[in-house]
Known about the structure:
By secondary structure, this protein is mainly α. It has helices spanning 5-19, 27-34, 38-51, 75-82, 102-118, 122-125, 133-141, and strands at residues 54-57, 63-66.
Amino acid sequence: MRLTTFSDYTLRTLMYLALHPDRFVTIAEIAAAYRISPNHLMKVVQDLAGSGVVITLRGQRGGLRLARSANDIRVGDVIRRTEPAISLVPWSEYITQPGCAQPNVLDLAMTAFMAVLDGHSIADLVADPAALAPLLDRPRQLGVEGP
């Protein structure tokens, strides 16, 4: 299973926001933390704001933050939103012989995969802040400050 860069950046953004629940965070800060393009993050943030997962605030003290607790944001829901056509095999292009069990086995695998993601929240992804400490300091080291 390979997720798109969009899904990766979406999860990273949500994780970063979960690590900073007490303030608005800028796109520039998140981009610096992960060393990724602010332009790509803009699209991610627009999608997250449109879905109601984040709140955005314009202006000098603006940025974004989670709209609800990280405990309430299920990883499976995020992936379903960012990967609407998720599947292991494009069945519309797949030809099987009568009685072939492969589609059923792969459907079971996808169901199990999504069940694991549904069993975890964004808060679970940041449960060990000590392991993520370098990420917390990187924007400051690069000269990017949050509001």
